[in-house]
Amino acid sequence: MSISSKKLSTPRVHFIGIGGIGMSGLARYFIAYGWLVSGSDAARSIMTQELTKDGVRVKIGHKKGNIPAGTELVIYNRAILANNPELVAAEKAARVSSRTGKGVVVVLPYSKALGRITEEYQTIAITGSHGKSTTTALAGLALMRAGLDPTILVGTKLADLGGRNIRIGKGPYLVLEADDFHAAFLDYSPAISIVTNIDREHMDFYKTFANAKRAFLKFLSQTRPGGTLILNRDDAPLYSLKPAIMRLVKKRTLKVVWFSLDGDAITARKIKKIIPIPGEHNISNALAVATLGAVLKIPEAKVLAAIGSYKGAWRRMELKGKLKGATIPVYDDYAHHPTEIRATLAAFREKFPQSPIFCIFQPHQAKRLNLLFDDFVGAFDTADIVFILPLYKVLGRDEKFAHDSAALVNVMQKKSPGKLIFYLEHPNNVRLAVEAILKNMRPQKGLPRSPVIVMMGAGDISDLTGKLLK
Questions:
Q1: Residue 449 pLDDT level (bands cut at 50, 70, 90)
Q2: Which residues 6+ apart lie within 8 Å of 332 measured at CB?
Q3: 432 Cβ neighbours under 8 A, 6+ residues apart
Q4: Claim to verify: residue 143 and residue 90 sit in the same structural domain
Q5: N- or C-end of the chain: fewer Cβ atoms within 10 A?
Q6: Residue 78's domain is classified under what CATH number?
Q7: How much is the pLDDT for 8?
Q8: What is the chain's alpha carbon radius of gyration, rounded to the nearest angstrom?
Q9: Rounded CA gap, 124 and 118, in Å?
Q10: How many structural domains comprise the chain?
């Protein structure tokens, strides 16, 4: 069954796990091309509420009866368990359809459905363990500034897109955030592939770092013959693959362009002067976009204008409000991996060099916490005061491990005995805990009275921000 962006014929599609950021964006893509869209999710969220406003019939909870009669295409999030009643019902209907020839039911994971769409465009697929959302956003803006009218699908909500995660364009380019979760990016067919970095992420799936690197190499091999690879020379794990990459380049007649903060110092300095988001990692992300602009022959002035005008993204150093008579800013950030935490806190320190930083962090997924436990211990060194919340457990992906949030705090306190590090067992008390610290802060301790509060994590910690701001 074709799900071409140019010839969409299937009238009805159902999404299992529609509240995911990628799934919601794909749902909106189908809406834009005239499909009847329905979906379900385990719980209500900002995304399910927004989709309901968009006209999607969203059911909370998973039941086989949630799939409307006449649905011909079912798309599911790869995090959905095999025994999900809707998935079981859809796959059964697909088998009956295949055997009897009556009805047409196609069941696809998100990545394969999106993969078919990538074949219809000159797809620019942007991936990496970190930084892919920001890089995708900046790349999309650069193509918009150049008048190329791209379609953009990104794993966050962008202020530049009216708070949405998708833009439907009429041009030939699809700017796509290519997810490395469960190696989803192997289902895509890019004309241009961009990799920001490779890190020990999603180890519950990859098992070893070597497997993760092999997956990224295979992603590059999906690039269409004659296409272009844009790669970060500064990332050691990625650059270690250079011999294999060069063999691939020769075999598939690809062009490879390496970008580097040192090697492209002039451009990097220009970016640093105008980029509105702090942090060296963001300069590197923007440099990838400048390199893309050169490949597409977009004038540098237009690329820099796009970078300089960037309005930011949902849960990426996002200012949510202020406390105490509008003097204490409260930010929300999605960082959940030690590398991301260190980079984000360093960016906050760059932005607020004189202010104490309160970091309120919710670990996400037990296996990540345990596999990277030592890295987590040292990830918060830049913060002055740290609150660690109980672990956010991911349905179907978590089990019991040796270390939990309390254990993390215990080791962090031993490592830094003079630092204020707390385990906040009852997250709803976060406001009381923060206020107690503020009340007892003293100028003689060397801390001014105007700190910066950072709510951080990939779970539901953002729900606490409203309670903190009340």
A1: low
A2: 315, 318, 320, 454, 455, 456, 462, 465
A3: none
A4: no
A5: C
A6: 3.40.50.720
A7: 42
A8: 23
A9: 9
A10: 3
